[in-house]
Amino acid sequence: MTYSAEEIDAWFESLEEAFQGKLPDDHPANRFYGGMAWRVRTMGKDILILIDSNFPYSKPQAFIEQYDVSHPQPHIEPLPRFGDMARICLLPPTIPSHPLQAIQSALRDARDLLKANERGDEDYDFEADFGAYWRHYLPAGFREAKLHGFSVAPAGSGVFFYRGGSYFCFPNKFSIRRWHGHLTGEYMRDLLHFPIVELTKLPRPDRYPRDLASLLMMLKRNTLNGVAIVGEKLRACPSRLPVLFSGTKPDGAAVKVAVELVIRRDNSGRPLSKAHVQSKLANDDVIALYDIAPLNTQHLDAALTRLPGAAPGPMHKKVAIIGCGALGSGIAVMLAKAGVSRFILVDQDLLGWENIRRHELGAEWVGVSKTAAIKARIEKSLPDIEQVGAYACGIQGLLASSPKLLDDVDLVISATGDWAADVFISDSVTLPTLYSWVEAYALAGHSVAISGKEGRFTDGFDEVGNFKGRASVAGLKMPLECGNATSPFGAIELAQSQAVASRLALEVLAGRHDGDVWRTWTAEEIVVQQAEGRWTNYWLETRGKPPVLGGVTEWKWAF
């Protein structure tokens, strides 16, 4: 569905005589969106209604022309890149089948919002969405403050380093060195301290600190002892210093924003005051030596907010994963992304070319220890992970040399697929343990959580490791590999078993199970057919015929 420029012009003409006509093509709004804009005078303001080149498959936008940032309005976003334009934050519908209605809706919503702003009905939003307004009202050329770990740090001090126009701010030296080391492999030296000042009241955008006067005003009006806290840090004569403000929104949520203080210099590049003089100045006087600018405040640990319920179960838990092959490596990565913060990884094998189609690691890691490579991948992709220990050996030898290694572990996961290793773990480890393995051709994947309070994992097998609860039998012969059989299946089939094991692990870590749990994924019927497979009599008698499209079932671990 496409419309000509003439048709669109006709819609605007039919809507409102107040429209003053289409804006020229070189107007900032047109250049920015690559569409067309019209001006209308309403509520004493020039409003631009703009459609982009994707219309009617996009929403019309509304802007204020000649917006006065010194008199901020709720739900209005300044656009410093385009002079004095500001975007009206609306949620008009996208209506491809009725483009005229979409334009009408945008104009109506813009008028309604401006009327509400005049009445003061929306002023609460300055505090309710304080962090967003801080970003919207940043001056041109702003720098950034990148924060990590300040969810429970209302006041005090932290440490930072400055690089590439950004301040990296952490609560302490340990956390910043761990994060930076995971991401870069480097040890961070020369860390500096910065103050954290608690806000007793969140200011409006027109009172955000942009110069000396506005900073001092906010420190005196909106904090208890902010002037003294900042002055003390500046008497140490830093060339630049971030100041983190910590506040609480009306809903009780914490919010953090930051400004930078950069020492002013004379024409020769020297500070305006000698260090020995600066160290003795009064608070107001030492602050006056610095230029002030708000920082675009970002949170390096923001991904934690996307986890359900802030992941209360896995946070700060420690998991030992024995076996980091295709199944175990996927479980490790899933649990790390789900919030588990500490790991022990155990596997004696190197990654081979035969592994890379279904293993979490790819060709760049061939020939490298699986545990070392998974450790590097987790730490680099999730640098806020607390600890990953990698051991390139078998579990028997590891516990013989380090018998207390698992003492502080919350859950052991065995994904070895090796009967001897599983028996050793069952006989030697008294911690809650989850065993996970995949049947031939990935027709079924099992995860069994043994609490230590009921049965034993070995109850489900005969003395040579034949599983009593087998779900499937494949007619295709498995290819031989160095005297052993290897099971062909891909990453898609494997992912189902990884997810079942990871979900059950999270439930155990959260304390949702007091006894043993046996959970199984059964594959889609077409996968069974491709393997010339069938479901066993045991499975059909105990759990019934699996769903045609696959699914998860749960049963008691008793034989």
Mean pLDDT rating: 90
| Proportion of strand residues | 15-25%
**Multimerization status:** single chain
The helix-and-strand class reads: alpha/beta
Output the strand order for the largest sheet.
16-15-14-17-18-19-23-25
- Major sheet: size, sense and barrel closure? 8 strands, mixed
Helicity level: 25-40%
- Low-pLDDT runs of 5+ residues are none
Straight-line N-to-C gap: 63 Å
Radius of gyration: 31 Å
Taken from the alpha-carbon principal axes, the silhouette is: globular
Number of helices: 17
Structure overview:
With 559 residues, the chain is an alpha/beta fold. Helices cover 29% and strands 24% of the residues. The chain has 17 helices and 25 strands. α6 (173-184) packs across α12 and α11 packs across α15 (491-509). The model has no long low-confidence stretch (mean pLDDT 90).
From the structure above, extract its key features.
single chain, 559 residues, alpha/beta, 8-stranded mixed sheet, 17 helices, 24% strand, globular
